[in-house]
Amino acid sequence: MNWLGLTDLASRRLGGGVVGTNDELFAAADNLVTPEPPGFTPKTFGPKGQVYDGWETRRRRVPGEDWAIVRLGAAGIVRGVVVDTSFFTGNYPPEASVQGCRVDGHPSLDDLLAADWVPLVSRSPLQGDTANPFSVSRDALVTHVRLVIHPDGGVARLRVHGEVVPDPVRFPDGFLDLAAAENGGRVVGCSDLFYGAPGQLIEPGLARTMGEGWETRRRRDAGNDWVLVRLAAPGRISLASLDTTHFKGNAPGAAALTGVDDRKADPADPAAWFPLLPRVDLRPDTRHRFPLRTDPVTHVRLDIYPDGGMARLSLHGHLDDGVLDTLRTAWLPAPGGGRMR
After folding, report:
1. EC number(s) in its UniProt entry (predicted)?
2. Which helix (DSSP H) or strand (DSSP E) does residue 329 occupy?
C-alpha cells in the first residue's frame, strides 16, 4: 500500500482536530489524531474504568452508531485510511465506515452536520488490536472526515493518508515554504533514519526536543547522509533554513542543497541535479538561514556531512509560473457553497 507513505492529513501536528462526537464516555475522541503511536498500561483505572489511549463510547442498548468528526490539518485528496484498534480487544467496533466532505472556512459543528457527506470507506469489518487499512479511490478535495463505528466501542487512532492540496488563500502572492508538509511537501527518500524520522524535518513549528528532528547513526566510513524532499509544487527557492536546534554534540559539520526539476529531467539521473547551496559549515543548536536564487525545482536533496541530526528544513520561495492559478482552480467553490457533492 504505497499510500501509507503519504502525509497523515488528520495529524494533530498539522493542526488536525476532533470537532464533534456523539459520545466519548470512556475515552476522549481527541486521542484519535494524536501523532504518537497508541500506548496502554494494564490495570490502570480511572473513575470510568480502564484508561485507554483512544476514543471509546459507552455500550449501546438501542440500535444506532457512534461517530466523530475530524477537521483535517491539511485539506487534500484522501488515498487511504487506517482505523487503528490497538489495545482494544473485547471492546472494539465490529465495523466502521468513513465519510468525507468539503466545507471551506471555519464551519461550526452544525454546519458540518448539515454538509453533504460522501463515502470514502464503505461499512467494513474491523479486527481488534489491529491497524486496519482501507484504500480510498475517490478523487475529491476533502476538508473534514467522519469516522462512524457500528454500533459502538473503541478506536485508538484514525490516520487519513493523502495528497495535500494547499489552499492558495494562505499565500496570495505565491510565496510559501515549499518544503513544508502542511503545504504538500513530502520526504521521499533518505540514507538513514536510525534515531529520528526524516519526515519530522518538514513538520510545522519549531522542534521542542531533539526527538522531534531527524538524526542518523554515527558513520564509520567515508560517505555522508542525505534526505530527499519532493516540494509542495514547482518553485524558485529564495531562502533556505537549516535548523540544528537541540543538536549540540551531534549536529552535522556541514551541509549542501541540490535540486532538480522533474518536468525537464529525470531525478534518477545524477547529472540532472544542480547546486542550490554549496557545501557550508553548520553550527550546533543554531537556526541557519541562507538566501538563494534558484531556477525552478520540484525536488531538493539535503546532504549532511558526514552524519548527525537536524531539527527542521524550510525552503521558502515562490511558486513557478502558472502553479498558483492551478491551485486556485482546484479550490473553486464547489456546488452548494463550498460543500463537496
Report:
1. 3.5.3.4
2. helix 323-330
Other beta carbons within 10 angstroms of residue 60's beta carbon come to 14
Inter-residue contact 158 to 97 (CB < 8 Å): no
Please list the residues that pair with 55 across neighbouring strands: 155
What is the average pLDDT across 132-159?
97
Which option is the CATH number for 175-320: 3.90.1150.10, 1.10.1200.10, 2.60.120.260, 3.40.47.10?
Answer: 2.60.120.260
Residue 110: its H or E element:
helix 109-113
- Using CA atoms, how far apart are residues 26 and 59, in angstroms rounded to an integer? 10
Report residue 265 as a C-alpha cell: 529531467
According to DSSP, the residues that pair with 154 across neighbouring strands are 56
